[in-house]
Amino acid sequence: MKKNKNRLGYIVSGFSEKPCCYAFLFFVCYLSFFSSTVLAEGPAYLTKIETLLKSDKAPEGIVFEIINRNVLFLNWAMPEVAKQSERLRKKFPDLDIAVVSHGREMFALTAVKQSENLNLKTQVDSLVSQQIPVYVCGTYAERKGVSDAEFPENIRVAAEGPSQIKDYINLGYTHILLNMN
Fold it and tell me: CA 18 to CA 20: how far, in whole Å?
C-alpha cells in the first residue's frame, strides 16, 4: 500500500483526507452537544427556584424529589435542600416544603446508617425541626428487605414515594427534582 503525506505531514494510507475531517467534525459536534445537554440539565432545579424567587406570589408549597442510585447522594442533596429551602422561606416565610427520597440514596436514612453519618443525621434533624417533613418510599424499602421500623421516627415512610410526590403536586406544590445521575 502506498503511503502519502497529507498537507499537515501526517502519513495517510488508503484513506482520503475528507472522511477523517468529517469524522473529526462529527466527534467535536457530538461532544459539544453532549456537554451542553449535561450543563443544561444540571442547574434545571436552580432555574426553577430562581423563577419562584422572582415571583411576587408564593407557590402553594414545594416538594423536593430526591432520586439517585448512589447512597452517598444525600450528603449533597440534603444540604442543598436546606440551602434552597432557606432561600425560598426568606422570601415566602410560611412556605410549606416537603422532601421525598425514593432511590437507593434513601437507605442512608435508616437509623443505622444515620448513626454512621452524623452530618446527614444533623441535616435531616434540622430540616424536620423547620417543619420540612422527609419521606422515603415504603414500597422500595420493602422490596429491598428494609422494614419501616428501620427508619428513625423523624423519617416518614410513604406507601409509595412517587404517589406521595403526585399527592403534593395535586395540592398545587411545585415539584423540584434533585437527581444527578
Answer: 5
